[in-house]
From TrEMBL:
A Pfam family this chain is assigned to: F-box-like
UniProt-listed InterPro entries: F-box-like_dom_sf, F-box_dom, FBXL15_LRR, Leu-rich_rpt_Cys-con_subtyp, LRR_dom_sf
Protein name in the entry: F-box domain-containing protein
This protein's encoding gene: FBXL4
Domain F-box, residue spans: 277-332
Entry keywords, A to Z: Leucine-rich repeat, Ubl conjugation pathway
Length: 568
C-alpha cells in the first residue's frame, strides 16, 4: 500500500459497517421472522408433549396505573387465567401501565434524554412473570384487551425463581423484539409473535413495552407460555436460513446486549502492535473526540481495539460524561462497572435504571464505582434497581455532593429508613420517589433540607400517613417547586391544597389524580386555578366532584394550560 494512501479510510470503513448493520436491521428482521416461523412450526417432534401454562405470579414491574392496595388496573392482574379476554374495552381487572402516548415526555417534569442510547433500545416499561414449570419455550401469547401494540420485546431468563439453590449463572435471552408500530385497532387480540429457540428451560418471562404510539392506555389480561419439558431439536428445514443472517445474528449474540465482553473490550492489554496511526495523528484531538461522540458504548468498546491512538480516545473520560447503561441491564455486572471505573471519573449523568437485579450488581461493586466516579455526578437514574439498600443510599449521599437529580422510581424493596440519607443531598432539584416505601418522617427531613427542589414525585407512596402535613412543609420550604406528583395520595384535603397553592406559586404541573379526599364543594380546585396561573398540566383524574365552576376558573386563570385530565 502506498504511504500516501489516506489512513482515514479505516474510520470511514468502520462508519460504513455501522451504517450497513443499521440499514440491514429491518430487512434482516423480516427475513428472520419468516425463518423463525419455519422454526416454530417444526422445532418439536410429536413425541414432545407441549406444556401450556398461564403466569403464576407477577414478580417485578416498572409502573402501573392502579393502586398499591388494590387489584384494579394493576400488573398483578396478569397472573392466572384471563379475566376479560376475548372481550374488548376498558376493564379494571386488566394490567395497565402508568402512561401512554408522547404527552408524558412533553410535561414540564420530563427529563432530557441521555446521549448514546442505542436506537434499538426503545423500552419504556416492563413486567416480569413467573410460571409453575420450567420449559423450553415454543410460543408466548399475550392477551391484549384494549389498545394493543405496546409489547415490543419478550425475554426469557435461565434462573428459576422457585429454586432454593441460587443459580451459578443468570442469563437473559431475547425471544422476540420489534420496533414500536402503530396498531390501528383498539379491539382485543391474542398477540402471537414468532419467537426464537433458546438452549435453556425457563419459567421467568419478561415483557417490555413502548406505549408512545398508542392513543390510549394498553390493557393486558394474561400471558400464556407454551413449551416442552425436553430440549427440542431443530428440524433440517432450518437450513433454509440465510448464512449471512446467521453470521450477523451471531455477531449480535456474541455482544449480547453490548456488554458481555466489556472486560476484554476495555482492556488495553488486548491491543496488538500494528502499523502507525496514519493521518489520525494529523487530526486535532478535539475533532476525533467529536467524531467518536456519535458512537454507542459497544461500538466505542470495539473501536478501542483498533490502534493505540483510538484506544486513547475511546478511554478518555470526556467520552463518558453522559453514560446510559440502562439498555445493557441484562448483562451489566460488577466486573463491567470495575472496567468502566477509570473511564468514568468525570461522569455527570449516569443511568443505572433496571440494572443489577438478581445479583448482577452487588452493594460492594456499586459502592466501589461511586467512590471513584461520584464526585462530579449531577444526575443519577436508579429506577427499578433492586440491588439498592440503605448502604447504597448512604454512599450516594457521601460520594455525590453535586447531585441535583435522583430517580428512585419503583425501588420498592428499599427499606423506609434508607431514605433518611437523601436529606444530606441539599442541592437536589429533582427527586422521584414513585412507588417507594418512604415514610413521613424521612420525607419531612428531605423537604426541610432540600429547599432547592423544583421537581418532586410522590405518586403511590403508600407509607405516608398525612399528606396535609407534607403539603404544608412543601409550601413552607420548597418555594422554587415547579412540578409535583401526588398521584393516588390517599388523604390530602383542601387544607393541604391551600398550603400548596399559597406557598408554591411557580407550580407548572400538578398531579392530583385518584385523590379521593378532595371535594370541589370546598372550593379547593377553584382556589388552585386562581393562585397557580402558570399551570401547564393539571390532573384531577377520577374526581367525580369536579364541576362547571372549576372548569370555568381554570379557563379564566390558567391561560398556559396544555394538559387537563378530568377523566371520570
Amino acid at each position: 500500500m502506498s504511504p500516501v494512501f489516506p489512513m482515514l479510510t479505516v474510520l470511514t470503513m468502520f462508519y460504513y459497517i455501522c451504517l450497513r448493520r443499521r440499514a440491514r436491521t429491518a430487512t434482516r428482521g423480516e427475513m428472520m421472522n419468516s425463518h423463525r416461523t419455519i422454526e416454530s412450526n417444526s422445532r418439536t417432534s410429536p413425541l414432545h408433549a407441549e406444556v401450556v401454562q398461564y403466569a403464576k405470579e407477577v414478580v417485578d414491574f416498572s409502573s402501573h396505573y392502579g393502586s398499591e392496595n388494590s387489584m384494579s388496573y394493576t400488573m398483578w392482574n396478569l397472573a392466572g387465567v384471563p379475566n376479560v379476554f376475548p372481550s374488548s374495552g376498558d376493564f379494571t381487572q386488566t394490567a395497565v401501565f402508568r402512561t401512554y402516548g408522547t404527552w408524558w415526555d412533553q410535561c414540564p417534569s420530563a427529563s432530557l434524554p441521555f446521549k448514546r442510547t442505542p436506537p434499538n433500545f426503545q423500552s419504556q416499561d416492563y413486567v416480569e412473570l413467573t410460571f409453575e414449570q420450567q420449559v423450553y419455550p415454543t410460543a408466548v401469547h399475550v392477551l391484549e384487551t384494549y389498545h394493543p401494540g405496546a409489547v415490543i420485546r419478550i425475554l426469557a431468563c435461565s434462573a428459576n425463581p422457585y429454586s432454593p439453590i441460587p443459580p451459578a449463572e443468570v442469563r437473559w435471552e431475547i425471544l422476540w423484539s420489534e420496533r414500536p408500530t402503530k396498531v390501528n385497532a383498539s379491539q382485543a387480540r391474542q398477540f402471537k409473535p414468532c419467537i426464537k429457540q433458546i438452549n435453556f428451560p425457563t419459567n421467568l418471562i419478561r415483557l417490555e413495552v413502548n406505549s408512545s404510539l398508542l392513543d390510549y392506555y394498553t390493557e393486558l389480561d394474561a400471558v400464556v407460555l407454551h413449551g416442552t419439558k425436553d430440549k427440542p431439536v431443530l428440524s433440517l428445514k432450518t437450513s433454509l436460513i440465510d448464512m449471512n443472517d446467521l453470521e450477523d445474528d451471531d455477531y449480535e449474540e456474541k455482544d449480547g446486549c453490548g456488554m458481555d465482553s466489556l472486560n476484554k473490550k476495555f482492556s488495553s492489554t488486548a491491543l496488538r502492535e500494528g502499523p502507525n496511526n496514519g493521518y489520525f495523528d494529523k487530526l486535532p484531538y478535539e475533532l476525533i473526540q467529536l467524531i467518536l461522540n456519535h458512537l454507542t458504548l459497544p461500538d466505542l468498546c470495539r473501536l478501542a481495539q483498533t490502534c493505540k491512538l483510538l484506544n486513547q480516545h475511546c478511554c478518555d473520560p470526556l467520552q463518558y460524561i453522559h453514560l446510559n447503561l440502562q439498555p445493557y441491564w441484562a448483562k451489566l455486572n460488577d466486573t463491567s462497572l470495575e472496567f468502566l471505573q477509570s473511564r468514568c471519573t468525570l461522569v455527570q449523568w449516569l443511568n443505572l435504571s433496571w440494572t443489577g437485579n438478581r445479583g448482577f450488581i452487588s452493594v460492594a461493586g456499586f459502592s466501589r464505582f461511586l467512590k471513584v466516579c461520584g464526585s462530579e455526578l449531577v444526575r443519577l437514574e436508579l429506577s427499578c434497581s433492586h440491588f439498592l439498600n440503605e448502604t447504597c443510599l448512604e454512599i450516594i449521599s457521601e460520594m455525590c455532593p453535586n447531585l441535583q437529580d435522583l430517580n428512585l422510581s419503583s425501588c420498592d424493596k428499599l427499606p423506609p429508613q434508607a431514605f433518611n440519607h437523601i436529606a444530606k443531598l441539599c442541592g437536589l432539584r429533582r427527586l422521584v420517589l414513585y412507588r417507594t416505601k418512604i415514610e413521613q418522617t424521612a420525607l419531612l427531613s428531605i423537604l426541610n433540607f432540600c429547599s432547592e427542589l423544583q421537581h418532586l414525585s410522590l405518586g403511590s407512596c403508600v407509607m405516608i400517613e398525612d399528606y396535609d402535613v407534607i403539603a404544608s412543609m412543601i409550601g413552607a420550604k420548597c418555594k422554587k417547586l415547579r412540578t409535583l406528583d401526588l398521584w393516588r395520595c390517599k388523604n390530602i384535603t383542601e387544607n393541604g391544597i391551600a398550603e400548596l397553592a399559597s406557598g408554591c406559586p411557580l407550580l407548572e404541573e400538578l398531579d392530583l389524580g385518584w385523590c379521593p379526599t378532595l371535594q370541589s364543594s370546598t372550593g379547593c380546585f377553584a382556589r388552585l386555578a386562581r393562585q397557580l396561573p402558570n399551570l401547564q398540566k393539571l390532573f384531577l383524574t377520577a374526581n367525580r366532584s369536579v364541576c362547571d365552576t372549576d372548569i370555568e376558573e381554570l379557563a379564566c386563570n390558567c391561560t398556559r394550560l396544555r394538559q387537563l385530565d378530568i377523566l371520570g
